[in-house]
Write a structure and sequence with these properties.
Layout (H helix, E strand, L loop, with lengths): L3 E7 L6 H16 L6 E7 L16 E3 L2 H12 L20 E5 L9 E5 L7 E4 L11 E5 L6 E8 L2 E10 L7 H10 L6 E12 L2 E11 L14 H22 L2
Parallel strand pairs: 1-2, 1-3
Antiparallel strand pairs: 4-7, 5-6, 5-7, 8-9, 8-10, 10-11
Length: 256
């Protein structure tokens, strides 16, 4: 299948680092190979747009833009709603902290925790204390023990291989143990063709660090923080998107 991308512009401008990098990757790939060139078109939206009306011809493109933009595309054409991955059960052993999944009913009993929605990307996310006068909306959540993090890194994974590693917060000289990241990749058997692992580094003694999993992201609307493998990046976006649709359609069929 030839690659075709629908790239979001906001008020006539490209705003996302992953879109800038995609443009550079397309130029590189099209220069490198004259045949089967990558095609793209732009879709302009307003700054505060929440309602995106795609045309029927857009269905054959891979959307690249904000979470809201991609989610609206998947909803309109495939009636699918992507959900957070957070810390999957397969990788709990690498989290280096107590984590459990539950509904809002667990909140009064969880103590001070980092809580993230398991239902909605960019939903409830933050540190909450059971003593606070708040009420979590009904839904599914991941509750996590709060731990210190000295350095945060985003690992890029494609076709079962680590293809990039970028620092995005904290002390960049505190480097994660790559072998531990590779172990995570081996264990994550249900992983999609492309995804990211956010990993943390914490100092646990003089000249000794531990590397642990913060969370996992499907490969769309992901900040790249300097990752720019022009030979692989378009394929990562393209193959993740079509695999996601295929997997979700199969799941829906099996659940009927």
């Amino acid at each position: 299948m030839s690659m075709k991308f629908l790239i979001q512009k906001i008020n006539g401008e490209i705003r996302h680092d992953f879109s800038f990098t995609l443009m550079e990757s397309i130029r590189f790939r099209n220069w490198l190979q004259n045949a089967d060139k990558i095609k793209y078109r732009f879709f302009d939206t307003a700054e505060d747009a929440i309602d995106f009306k795609f045309k029927s011809l857009h269905r054959h493109y891979v959307p690249v833009g904000s979470v809201e933009f991609v989610s609206a595309f998947l909803k309109q054409f495939y009636d699918l709603t992507p959900r957070p991955v957070n810390v999957p059960l397969e990788l709990l052993r690498y989290s280096d902290r107590h984590i459990f999944n539950g509904t809002e009913s667990y909140f009064p009993h969880c103590g001070k925790s980092f809580i993230k929605s398991n239902d909605k990307i960019k939903g409830i996310c933050g540190i909450f204390n059971q003593d606070e006068a708040i009420k979590l909306p009904a839904g599914n959540y991941q509750f996590s023990e709060i731990v210190s993090i000295d350095s945060e890194w985003r690992a890029f994974v494609y076709d079962g291989k680590l293809v990039g590693l970028q620092n995005y917060a904290g002390e960049f000289t505190k480097f994660p143990y790559v072998d531990i990241i590779k172990d995570m990749i081996k264990v994550y058997k249900s992983a999609p063709i492309a995804y990211t692992l956010d990993v943390g580094v914490r100092e646990i003694g003089e000249n000794h660090n531990t590397t642990f999993l913060i969370e996992v992201h499907d490969f769309f609307s992901c900040g790249l923080y300097g990752f720019a493998d022009h030979a692989k990046y378009p394929s990562m976006l393209h193959r993740w998107f079509w695999q996601y649709i295929q997997r979700e359609m199969v799941n829906q069929h099996c659940n009927k």
